Amino acid sequence: MKNACSIVWFKRDLRVFDHAPLAAAVEAGLPILPLYVIEPGYWQQPFASRRHWHFIHDSLVELRTDCAELGQPLVVRTGTITNVFETIQHDYVIDAIYAHEETSNLWGYQRDKDVRQWCRAHDIKCNEYPTNGIVRRLRDRDDWAQIRNQRMAAPLIPKPDRLRPVSVEVGQILAKDDSLFGGDVPGVTQQGGRRAAIETLHSFLTDRGSQYLFRLSAPGPSEIYCSRLSAHLTWGTLSAREIVKSVQSRRAQLSAADGKTWKRNLSAFASRLSWRCHFAQKIEDRPNIETDAMHPAFRVVPVVDREDALFAAWATGRTGYPFIDACMRNLIHEGWITFRMRAMLVSFASYHLGIDWRRTGYVLARLFTDYEPGIHYSQIQMQSGITGINAVRIYNPIKQSMDHDPDGVFIRRWVPELQNVTAMWIHEPAKMDPQMQQRLGCVIGQQYPPPLVDHKAAVDAARARISAARKTAGFRDEAKKIYAKLGSRRRKGTRKVANKKNANTRQLSFFDSTNKL
């Protein structure tokens, strides 16, 4: 007769602390099979990359050790999730499957539907628990903030004292260089695992965070002074609640001497944690935002001449706009860049070049170590001006360059073709006369490309496209529906919208909000 067991299915929650499914499975009293499944179908998707696997691999190695210290090592299998469950059923009676609700892209949404259907067919309980501040089956946004804050205020769940073991082969964690995970990583990957997460959180709260607000927008310094916790939140080596409570604890410890500056930085960081949940909620409420524009007026993407060539230049950092190219090359190598620069890269691709936002989104998804579907696609749409509920924000790449890299230090680091160009010309080298180009060793069209498009002409054309869409019949009525489902809610006591005309295109009150973490 087969023995009964509970399965704890790990997905984007690679930890044993503050883990509701694991705690509930232990409470049920049966032997526990902690399971992670490497799903080939996922890794064949256009958003997946080896860079993600590198971070996950680090985290799985530590998670296996952490589970082993509790009495049962993490079990790893490769295959379709329901096939893996079927195989386990050959040897055990699966009493229940415990997992977090995963807020994912369309592939993950369908996978989870398949799992629930399989459980029903086999009369197996499928117990799912909320993740961070995401609320499943939410009718509208009116009560979301209150629910999220209640969850963040709830006590942390301690790790179990012990896991009752099962007799099963633990299985192989595939190597970082396994061919399943696609092409080589084009640079480096942030260290994964809970220990790295805790060290990163500690260094931010005790040292690096003191300059958070001052440094968060500029590339280069932001790599140091932003929290760098976004990848750990994405893959679940820390929970959002752990970080919220750590920030609260740090604020309580501050002395009067250093409290004012620190509190301002920590308040800004806590606000961004909330905004992070806000954006992730969007894909929970509308899973199709990975592929469909939120507003139907933007669902047909205009055909652009030479799109493949424009796309290739943007994706490799060869646009002729030095700051754009430096940011893209930095991202390609590091797998992370601060939020303002992410927004600028998307804005430039969508507005200046007219590239299909879905194409842009998949490139960036593969590059970001902290690829979080809910945040990713809602931000891609927001920065492309196609949500119908946000003001159009078109970044001027020259102004951004002068504001955030006035002397060109960042540009010269990542675009070495321009290393001899002086600060006077570094932001627009194509304006140098031919003699100066020769003298500085940067001939436009040879060592460095000319600008792909004229900034003013491209922006004027983009605004005309957006304006035409906003004038279509029924645009505002549809925008009201989108806002009711996905829009942020104004807090009590904040300023009312100036006029009803703008009420349907409200800009989020903290624009540079998410993935600065």
Helix content: 40-55%
SS field, number of helical segments: 22
Percent in strands: 5-15%
Low-confidence stretches: 492-517
Order of helices and strands: EHEHHEHEHEHHHHHHHHHHHHHHHHH
Shape: globular
Please, could you describe this protein's structure?
The chain is α/β, with parallel strands linked by helices and 517 residues long. It is built from 22 helices and five strands. The chain has helices at 20-28, 40-43, 50-69, 81-91, 106-121, 144-153, 194-206, 212-215, 222-225, 230-235, 240-253, 256-285, 307-316, 322-334, 339-352, 357-367, 373-384, 397-404, 409-414, 434-440, 455-470, 475-486; strands at 3-10, 32-38, 75-78, 92-100, 125-129. It has a five-stranded parallel β-sheet with strand order 3-2-1-4-5, with helices on both faces. α1 (20-28) links the parallel β1 (3-10) and β2 (32-38). α11 (240-253) packs antiparallel against α12 (256-285), α12 (256-285) crosses α17 (373-384) and α15 (339-352) packs across α17 (373-384). The chain is globular and about 85 Å long.
Keywords for this structure?
517 residues; alpha/beta; five-stranded parallel beta sheet; 22 helices; 5 strands; globular
Write the layout of secondary structure elements.
Layout: E1 3-10, H1 20-28, E2 32-38, H2 40-43, H3 50-69, E3 75-78, H4 81-91, E4 92-100, H5 106-121, E5 125-129, H6 144-153, H7 194-206, H8 212-215, H9 222-225, H10 230-235, H11 240-253, H12 256-285, H13 307-316, H14 322-334, H15 339-352, H16 357-367, H17 373-384, H18 397-404, H19 409-414, H20 434-440, H21 455-470, H22 475-486
Parallel strand pairs: 1-2, 1-4, 2-3, 4-5
